[in-house]
Amino acid sequence: MARACIVGWAHTPFGKLEDPDVESLMARVSGEALAHAGVGPEDIDGIYVGVMNNGFSKQGFEAAQVALDQPALAHVPSTRLENACATGSAAIYTALDFIESGRGRIALVVGAEKMTAKPVVETSDILLSASYRKEEADIDGGFAGVFGRIAQNYFQRYGDRSEELARISAKNHRNGVANPYAQMRRDFGFEFCNAVSDKNPYVAAPLRRTDCSLISDGAAALVVADEETAERLQQAIAFRTRQHVNDILPLSRRDPTAFAGARIAWDKARAHAGVTLDDLDLVETHDCFTIAELIEYEAMGLAAPGEGYRIVREGIAEKDGRLPINPSGGLKSKGHPIGATGVSLHIMACLQLMNQAGDMQIPDAKLAGVFNMGGAAVTNYVSILERRK
Description:
There is one protein chain. By secondary structure, this protein is α/β, with parallel strands linked by helices. It has a domain at 4-118 and 215-230: Thiolase/Chalcone synthase (Peroxisomal Thiolase, Chain A, domain 1, 3-Layer(aba) Sandwich). The chain is built from 14 helices and eleven strands. The strands form two sheets. Strands 3-2-4-7-1-8-11-10-9 form a nine-stranded mixed beta sheet. Strand 10 (367-374) and strand 11 (379-387) form a beta hairpin. Helix 3 (87-100) packs across helix 14 (338-353) and helix 7 (162-176) packs across helix 11.
């Protein structure tokens, strides 16, 4: 089976953008990604669009909107994907399946979300659709409250790790200063992140404002192609492996502190790729909340359950550490426009592998891990990427 490669990409800044809707955001990246790949609309065999929406906009049917800016794509089959906060990765993986099945040679993937047009209270309710409303709809603090409860359970079992969460936040904000796409390019420092204050209150105790990712607008796009086609294009980033593993939706029916689906996905990825964590040069991971990144250290195998704090204390995940994690600043600094996030994570890894990450660059990066999850680690995508040309 021929494997698909990433051959081009484009990325808007993330933040509170003036673009009025998802359509305009997708227009900003669609043509730019094609140009970066060195292909035209006439070369595209399929389009895969990742937008969660679910109430952010009354206008649905986002799959048909890409052609509004690129009329030559009007008759290309286009499909919209939604998989909570992993919506972007769902679109990527479906495009890869399309290419690797032989049904097409080149596909366009676009992920986007317009979140800031809604009041925060409405946004919080929309995001709760990624939880199990029958049991979790009344958790105070919305989706932040879901992860606040996860943090409470983790602290009860393993001890208070608020300081380590603050160190994760400080690391990611420090890294994000160098990211031109990031919504929050400011180094807050550990002391600010570790203190509860008027500027850093509890959002859903024990999570403070600096423990939570940002409500964002933004879009990102990839062009993927089969290996033969990729050989004649300017750049090619291959998937050494890609894995998708789900877990049960209600928190009541699983251990919310273990991220079992993520652990299985990472185990499968390492085994299929024939690598260890020591072989990876960096990981871009899904830090929607700092407690998520802490538990992800354990899920990926960096630390035993309850010992993720060691990764923080020993500086392993720092930009100059043994395994830099989120050198882009992660969702914490970059922002989290739901449909764009999975695509963005992959682009951040591609920039590293192409030695185009600027001041974010990890020297001589050859192998990058990407982890994108939807819901509270309900759906889990792990990619291991390497440069082909």
